[in-house]
Design brief:
Length: 557
């Protein structure tokens, strides 16, 4: 019966996303290729001083991304520090400098790592005017960068322009994220997610105790949190909170919202480059990797790893009864496979091998299916390596979609795949090497031994890959850890973006490669090669720490 529900949940999500794959993917391609601007868009360009018709080189496109993100970071940091001066602050104080830095870096970096209890720390004014705004624009930045890389592949005349970042940013927000968020918010509101400006209310519980429940504009925040693959919870319990995620079917809906844009972007890619077979190859790769994580994760949680009698009915600890194990593992696979970071169960309470699968999902590089936009460009980086290796094995020229992949392109993607391990493992090394930081870290761990190490491993991988979820057993809210994790988040966000745009610029300057024997890269054989390459390139680097953490715990249990 459990497997029936597991298959049903997965098939329901797949059916809905499959039905929307073509229309949404084609619509997004139209949004980023049409020459017609909406009247409100022209007004925004005029007020902002943007020349909407100007093509940008990769350097100018990158400079625009960095300038916009820096401005957003400074503004959000100021709002967090000066919260008492803002409307709807609920009398809450401003954040400390280190926590404000961490939070601003996290939301600007589309990570939404939260080292604080939201309902006790952030008022409605900052939620709406600061955090929700970054939920929109950080997702739009990821989509814009992905589209710039797609334009690099689609260019056929050797032009260096990648489009205009400001136009892509505005269109992604006004034409894609905002309409989808409005629709999703109305559905969530009808399903029981709250939307108000009420202060805290004291109630009597069924156990005759007292509890203080906050209100808030939750439905509107929840919609963009999921659609933009952001993940920051309005409440500390995130999507396990009944006012954020009330029922089993809203849980499936939120999972679908989280996966909708990432799984539709391959269609956008295929439409823009004029080869839908290439898009289907990306989609199939994402799908295989998603199932590759979901199935064993669900097995481990349903069987409770098969080692403890109290887990005979499955590992229910840390999971909401209204979602059950199936709803929890599906959501967990989606959130660790994207940059979502939202959680509807406590990952710290998963079985050892279940936690291992969640870490494995993130170490893949967020390509199963990855974030809104970021998943597509991360997968295309690995695609370049796969094409190059396949060409070498078969004695062919490394050409993909008419673009020759040379030494420059391979150098860029080789550096890109090293960003995650360097930041995650380097951050761990620093945290344990600096005596003051090590002492703070050890005091912050609620568990000892291999499970405590797993909490630390998970946190640094999550920050470096811009995921934002946590095992929840590690309290990283101290000055040194807040700064270190904030820096890792920013580097993990903008170094790959710079490399992706440099790759896009290199491809855009090329004309169509003169070759009569381009590899058939849309066939299942190549998908198998790509999936195998992703696993064998990204995961082995983390094997030593995973052996010492979740794997050792699983064998000892």
């Amino acid at each position: 019966m459990e497997w029936f529900f597991a298959a049903s949940a997965l098939l329901t999500a797949a059916l809905v996303i499959g039905l929307l794959y073509r229309p949404l993917g084609d619509y997004m391609a139209h949004v980023f290729t049409t020459s017609r601007d909406w009247r409100v868009e022209r007004l925004i360009y005029r007020l902002s001083g943007v020349d909407a018709g100007r093509q940008q080189s990769w350097r100018r496109y990158l400079a625009s991304v960095l300038a916009f993100s820096l401005a957003g970071f400074v503004l959000l940091y100021a709002m967090l520090r000066l919260q008492p001066m803002l409307p709807l602050s609920l009398g809450l104080p401003g954040m400390s400098p280190d926590l404000a830095f961490n939070t601003a870096a996290s939301f600007v970096g589309n990570t939404n790592w939260q080292s604080y209890v939201p309902e006790q720390t952030v008022g409605y004014g900052v939620q709406m005017g600061g955090l929700a705004v970054q939920n929109f624009v950080s997702a739009a930045v990821s989509m814009a960068v992905a589209v710039a890389l797609i334009r690099g592949f689609a260019s056929r005349r050797g032009r260096s322009g990648l489009g205009n970042f400001w136009v892509d940013l505005v269109r992604a927000n006004l034409r894609i994220l905002l309409p989808l968020s409005v629709i999703a918010a109305v559905i969530l509101l009808a399903a029981g997610v709250i939307q108000n400006f009420s202060d805290f209310s004291d109630i009597r519980t069924v156990a005759d105790g007292s509890q203080s429940l906050p209100g808030g504009p939750v439905a509107s925040q929840e919609a963009v949190k999921m659609i933009g693959t952001n993940g920051g919870g309005f409440f500390n319990a995130n999507s396990a909170h009944p006012l954020e995620n009330p029922t089993a079917w809203t849980n499936v809906l939120q999972t679908i919202l989280l996966l909708l844009i990432p799984f539709s972007m391959p269609r956008t890619f295929g439409t823009m480059v004029g080869d839908h077979r290439a898009g289907y190859a990306l989609l199939l790769t994402m799908s295989v990797l998603f199932v590759f994580v979901y199935v064993p994760l669900t097995v481990f949680e349903l069987q409770g790893a098969g080692t403890a009698p109290e887990l005979a009915g499955g590992a229910l600890e840390g999971k909401e009864q209204r979602f059950g194990i199936i709803g929890s593992t599906l959501f967990a696979t989606a959130t660790t496979g994207t940059t979502g970071g939202a959680v509807n169960s406590m990952h710290d309470s998963y079985t050892a091998f279940g936690g291992l699968m969640l870490m494995f999902d993130m170490t893949l590089g967020e390509v199963a299916p990855g974030g809104a936009g970021s998943g597509t460009y991360a997968l295309m980086i690995l695609m370049v390596i796969a094409v190059f290796l396949a060409a070498l094995l078969l004695g062919r020229s490394p050409v993909y979609l008419g673009k020759r992949l040379g030494v420059r392109e391979l150098k860029l993607v080789s550096i890109a795949i090293l960003v995650l391990p360097v930041l995650a493992l380097g951050g761990m090394a620093i945290s344990f090497a600096v005596p003051t930081m090590r002492d703070d870290l050890l005091r912050s761990m609620t568990n000892e031994g291999s499970h405590g190490l797993s909490e630390v491993i998970y946190a640094f991988i999550s920050a470096a890959i811009n995921n934002g979820s946590a095992f929840a057993g590690l309290n990283a809210n101290n000055p040194l850890m807040n700064v270190l994790i904030g820096v890792i988040i920013l580097l993990g966000r903008f170094i790959p973006i710079a490399l992706v745009l440099a790759l896009a610029g290199s491809l855009a300057t090329q004309g169509k490669a003169a070759t009569a024997a381009e590899l058939p890269l849309h066939r299942p054989q190549f998908v198998v090669l790509l999936v195998s390459l992703i696993v064998f390139i990204t995961v082995p680097i983390f094997v030593p720490v995973l052996l010492a953490g979740p794997f050792a715990e699983g064998l000892a249990g």
